[in-house]
Design goal:
It is built from nine helices and three strands. By secondary structure, the chain is α+β, with helices and mostly antiparallel strands. The protein has two domains: 103 residues, no CATH class; 92 residues, 3-Layer(aba) Sandwich (Cytidine Deaminase, domain 2), CATH 3.40.140.10. The longest helix is centred in the middle third of the chain and has 19 residues.
Length: 208
Amino acid sequence: MNNKIKKSNITIKELPADERPREKLLRYGCQFLSNGELLAILIGTGTRDRSALSVAERILAMEKTGISHLTDCTPEELCRIEGMGIAKSCKVVAAIELGKRIAQSPREKRYTVGTPEEVAALYMEEMRYLKKEYFKVLFLNTKNEILSVENTSIGNLNSSIVHPREVFRSAVKKGAAAIIVIHNHPSGNPMPSQNDLDITRRLCEAGQ
């Protein structure tokens, strides 16, 4: 028990690097942080005697319901906790309100594509009259819904400016299950060039 109290009173800087909330978030992602650690990142700093993590734990302990009570918490209520001034309290309340609004917002419509013709129907008119070559990557989920679209290259398309490493790094970052790559020919000639074929081959090899 004494060890636990002692640990809660040390500053975050005194914690091992892999136990500090911000560093954990950057290294492993938000999903690996506890509620207290996420709250500590919002709080930022603690007091002379208590770390931000300790202050966060006190906020979570305000009610037996745990984190759920924060949905209706006011800045004035948070200010009663030692180490929570009006600025920190407003930051926490604002973050919670943003979370509620995100949860309540209507889901953006996602297009499902299963054939080259369906992809062409979505992007043909957009790319038909472009004066430069655009190399786009479509990131799909497991249902073949388009999660997002990224311009990987603009200009003269060749193997030196389209790197499989960058394409698949974005795919992993976005949690995509599959990708589709498309690009235009300003000349209007739909036939793939040798560079087109080489890039497609390299992307296929990198994706295996």
